[in-house]
Amino acid sequence: MSQRYSISQSESDVQKDVIPASTYRLQLTPAFPFAAAGAALPYLSSLGVSHLHLSPVLEAVPGSAHGYDVTDHGRVREELGGERGLRALAAAARERGLALVLDIVPNHMALPSPLRLNRPLWEVAREGPASPYARWFDIDWEAGGGQLLLPVLARPDEPFTVDAGEDLLRCGDREFPLRAGTAHLPLPELLAAQWYRPAWWREARTSLNYRRFFTISDLIGVRVEDPAVFAATHAKVLELVRDGVVAGLRIDHVDGLADPEEYLRRLRAAAGPGCWVVVEKILARDERLPASWPVAGTTGYDALHRVDGVFTDAAGAGELTRQHGESTGTPSWEETASTAAREVLTGDLAAELATLERWAGPERASAVRELLIASPVYRTYPGGPGPDPQTLERAAARAGTAAVDGVRALLEQSPAFEARFAQTSAALRAKSLEDRAFYRWTPLLSATEVGGAPGAPAVAVAEFHAYCEERERDRPAAGTVLSTHDTKRSADVRARIAALSQAPEAMGPVGGPDPQLAWVARQSALGLGDVPERGPRLAAALLKAAREAALRTSWTDPDEAYEAAIADLVPPDPVELPPALSEAARANVLGMTLLHLTMPGVPEVYQGSESEFRALVDPDNRRPAEFPGEALAALDAGAAPATLAEEKLALTAALLRLRRSRPALFRGYAPLTADGPASDHCLAYTRPGGLVAVATRLSHRLAEAGGWRDTTLPLPRATGSPPTARARPPRTRERSGYRTSWQRSRWRP
User: Fold this and answer.
1) Category of 597 on φ-ψ map: left (φ > 0), alpha (ψ -120 to 50) or beta
2) Does residue 346 contact residue 491 with C-beta atoms inside 8 Å?
3) Using CA atoms, how far apart are residues 447 and 581, in angstroms rounded to an integer?
4) For the residues of 308-331, what is the DSSP string, one character each?
5) 3-state DSSP of 642-691
6) How confident is the model at residue 386 (pLDDT cuts 50, 70, 90)?
7) Is 477 strand, coil or helix?
């Protein structure tokens, strides 16, 4: 439904609660530092957000475009403007009624070049297990023969030189500290005498003896479960919280920690009750965040899945799956996911698996492997429920009941084994699902998103309502997202692709020498449409998709001839949806935006996504932000939205401003049910504070069936109003086979 949205500049009072009305994510880089964020404050304040969510701000590898490769927890990153710049940004934001939320990275640090940028790791390399910093890192000295493997060499035969005067070992432009008293040894003896072993990068797969982030060997795990390590790595962040510079924290990759709940309890005690805290946690469809965790909730991928799913047609998704199987030969989603898990665990994570198998003993090694592969969730938690019966049954079928029972006993008896098993499980799920199976299972790309369920992507209206009611009851201040720096496709691209589920025939014939990648190319082109630099952006995304799928090429073993032909899959001209599906995509974009900004939770707007935002997987989705300030000013001056981008901007600003100025409107949740032949196409609910939200779903199917016909939506009676009070001034609009009108006490969609 298209309509004029009233956007009043008088709605500028900021919610005084510690819970944000909404957040706006900014990706900070050396090219977009604190000063640039400060320059955007007038626009962001006008847009209606209450909090700015900043990507990591602590010192990182020089030039880092993301900041998750922390090198020093005690300093704010100089490339962004340093601590002075951050405090100035906070003060300027405060003057406009805005506050800051920081993204923090407790799980890992960079293994940088030069290594001395990470002083704790440098000291461990110099002094070994006796270093006071040795407790910072999960290093298995026994497995490494007393040496820390450093898989940093480009070739296995790179030559070394010794600088005895500086006590340094050099290999090309890399420097390593020498153990005291070893500088004058012959080179073979000198290398053997160090507390580390520089090695070819490929050795990480089988010989790594430190915990890392997923399969990224230049991000080394940090033991924040140690109170001293927690204190050292969080002192600066907590100082910023105490000083009022920071009002909220987003905890990156909480699943990587040894004991997430204990960590969060320690953080809550240190940050105080007024700090809003959410965790990046991927929940399976039927999984819930542990009720005992002292946080507002997740960052919102679980909400993303429900919003995407309610705009996906189940029958059409099934038909696309059938077509996909016929043209590509890809097995079922379950088999695809299981195969990917086995490949990643025994290949990319072979070193992590070997550690667990060694701890478990040879008689239980196969059970360790099968339990990890069969798990349906990212990880279990210390003190929480263990593997579910189905997981145990699947694992026992391959490894034997006795072996599985033995591992279960070990999980219960050994906290160290339980923690490492859970950390490995999280890495396995992330790499095998998000970074492999999602790139192999391609019937409907909008469903292969972080936190999604590609095998059953559609969400019924009743399921959506049940989720929202539960969220409002249990975690009303949790985050909600549609686009992030980690989504594989922005919400608007997914909205266009999801329209295909309403008309699978629009997919058209897909073939060629690599039909699997051809499906990715076709849907990616339809989702992206006509955008600047379309060709290179598509080609880069397809290359990444092919390498992640690891069917014909990979990151570690690229097939140059195959990769050279990938660009041929990029259409020479923009590919647009048929007109009817373009209208359906428009309804999806606006409907998804409406639900995101009105459903229970704290919505986050990713930079630029307040307007139409079409982006593919990173780094495409981390392109410099474009703020539509002029368009917003024109809408505020009374201009009618002329494009979908302006419609979305108007809707977003109207709802963000309402959330900020009238938070009581967004409390409580009650489903509304339409009556009539097209009732399933109406998703409606009320926030008992006075807000009614109504979205059209599966609008193309609706138009094919003849439109709304006699479908009506009974509206709740406003408190103190007579039953015949108008819900809204009458308005009617015809568009692409469906009609909208407002009546006295019932709404006809």
Assistant:
1) alpha
2) no
3) 18
4) HHHTS-HHHHHHHHHHHHHHH---
5) CCHHHHHHHHHHHHHHHHHHCHHHHCCCEEECCECCCHHHEEEEEECCCE
6) confident
7) coil
Instruction: Provide the pLDDT for residue 9.
Output: 32
User: Which residue is associated with the tokens 């008896």?
Assistant: 413
Q: Which amino acid is at 731?
A: R
26-59: string of b/e by CB count within 10 Å (b at 16+)?
A: bbbbeebbbebbbebbeebbbbbbbbbbbbbbbb
Give the Cβ contact number of residue 400 at 10 Å: 16
pLDDT of residue 451: 85
What is the DSSP pairing of strand 691-696 with strand 713-714? unpaired
CA-nearest of 105, 98, 100, 123 to 176 is: 123
Which tokens in the block code for residue 75?
Answer: 């300093």
Taking residue 494's Cβ as centre, other Cβ atoms within 10 Å add up to: 31
297 neighbors 444 (Cβ within 8 angstroms): no
CA angle 578, 703, 677 (to 5 degrees): 155
Judge whether residue 51 has pLDDT over 50.
yes
pTM for this one?
Answer: 0.93
pLDDT for position 717: 79
In this predicted structure, the answer to whether residue 519 has a pLDDT above a threshold of 80 is yes
**Mean pLDDT over each residue of the chain, to the nearest integer:** 92
Spatial contact of 666 and 659, defined as CB atoms under 8 Å apart: yes
Segment 620-641 shows an average pLDDT of 96
CB 744 within 8 A of CB 726: yes
**pLDDT tens by residue, 179-221:** 999 999 999 999 999 999 999 999 999 999 999 999 999 999 9
* Residue 533 CB contacts under 8 Å (≥ 6 apart), including other chains: none
Distance CA 290, CA 284 (A): 13
Asked whether the beta carbons of 527 and 489 are under 8 A apart, the reply is yes
Q: How many alpha carbons fall within 13 Å on the CB side of residue 448? A: 27
Residues 6+ apart with CB under 8 A from 450: 282, 301, 304, 434, 484, 486, 487, 488
Compute the residue count for the chain.
749
